[in-house]
Specification:
The structure is a homodimer. Chain A is an alpha/beta fold. Chain A has nine helices and 13 strands. Chain A folds into two domains: about 120 residues, Quinone Oxidoreductase, Chain A, domain 1 (Alpha-Beta Complex); about 140 residues, Rossmann fold. In chain A, α2 crosses α3.
Chain lengths: ~325, ~325
Amino acid sequence: MVETTIGEPGPGQALVRITDMSVDPYMRGRMNDARSYVPPFRVGEVMSGGAVGFVVESKDASLPVGTWVSSNELAWRDYGIADAKFLQPIDLAMAHASRYLGALGMPGLTAFAGLFDIGKFKEGETVFVSSAGGAVGTMVGQLAKLHGGKVIGSVGTPEKAAYLRDELGFDAAFDYHDGIGKQLRAAAPDGIDVYFDNVGGEQLQAAIGALKTYGRIVACGMISQYSEQSGAPTNLTQIVGKRLRMQGFIVFDHNDRMPAFRQEIAAALREGKLKYPETFIDGLENAPQALLDLFGGHHLGKVIVRVAPEGTKPA
Amino acid sequence: MVETTIGEPGPGQALVRITDMSVDPYMRGRMNDARSYVPPFRVGEVMSGGAVGFVVESKDASLPVGTWVSSNELAWRDYGIADAKFLQPIDLAMAHASRYLGALGMPGLTAFAGLFDIGKFKEGETVFVSSAGGAVGTMVGQLAKLHGGKVIGSVGTPEKAAYLRDELGFDAAFDYHDGIGKQLRAAAPDGIDVYFDNVGGEQLQAAIGALKTYGRIVACGMISQYSEQSGAPTNLTQIVGKRLRMQGFIVFDHNDRMPAFRQEIAAALREGKLKYPETFIDGLENAPQALLDLFGGHHLGKVIVRVAPEGTKPA
């Protein structure tokens, strides 16, 4: 943590007071010095990521002081300057600010685009989602249920499994530590149509085994393989015989879906048809541990770091 | 080898004298007692597969005696009886009979449907194909060249690599024993757009590393993994970041493409724009060894077993 002088916004820029920021698994990937869809973080520079806040100084007419905005450029700091094009005004009448980091933000759109556009999920199909208690997984499962699917989730504790079944309406949920293939077969004896993969490794292997002919794998993230390359699936040959499709995607390719997505999710949240748990961690100084804890599976739902004290708002 | 009485064709059936039969890698897969897209061969029964021959006795008006036919039901025998629906008349004016087992048959259609329908190959793209000297691979490479692509092939001997470069017009070809990733990078420094996978294992791993963003993997066969489950790729996480699509397919799902495919390939063969090497093995008694040799990489192009002496034809 360093304290530094931030300077003045230039023409077309605004200075934003960050109130909340997101921690996401992809941030770990950006710490590897590897060619990827976004360049790696650089040692000595401020990390970036999703954040919300309000404009406190502006040199852009479209962003008057007091405007609430979200941005993918401004996490991991109290204040930040960005070009207006990287600051999206958000509507606090539609949902409170932190929702734009989760249910109405990148994790929510990831679930929506992955399930429908990549996974081609249809009513009556069976979906298996790993890391089902997380920011993306809780949304995948509930969206599939809302659209007439059967949903199975894997998580890391029996408590999370019970929460998914009892509170979020999953048809089945289990602790992957107790064995994946066996529990998946018990939950879906006829097999699964879509596997939404947040994990890779042995969960991917079990899913390949359970997929029906013409099944789809939505390759969203392989959290178990960000830090180590273990547990590579040995049954890929089934991709041929069962005519499976495995397709990777990045949410930033699907921003055109944002309006349809936000309309549906905001309405479902208001009507109580969809729950989206948020875990708040207070204080920017606790953000590194919050990121590490994503990989330990300690939290449920979307993890948000409160950068400003709760209730901070424009003067 | 047993000699037995075959009986008489029933109504709607015909008795066929087999002249040539195909040996294909999938036959090894059918020897495993596993759920697959076709049921396993059963011990004590005659194996089946692609064959051509002519009708010697008929109880179906559409198949007069002397008609040349191809069938997927009648390999591994000298004579066979089948329902007329499993016997497709073939045109020996278009191409000689064995072509219907290779260039104009299942391996050719596999290359055609895989490259265009699954791989979505487009002019100007770079294709890497493994097992490139085989019945499918030689066709994949030449089709991609005919349609304006750049083509790289991997094979198991330096002689085959030279043949692909010098005779079939591949832009590059190498012996995979000399290291795959390095040779692939040298041949395609900017990466590849499509990987046509006949092999799986370490060649799949190298291809994943070389694929460009939005690249496609045509999962046609994983010959290296039919007998053992080794060399599972450990870099699947790149499927996410590079938004790759890996899709399995079975040629039998693409029979609607047969007319367009046969028209194009027969014309290209006649005009000398396409070469399709055939290796003939004489004698049904040598068919088991011919099948084994597919996996040893001894032969080039399509391997055909002559069941009847060369030149056998309707009386």
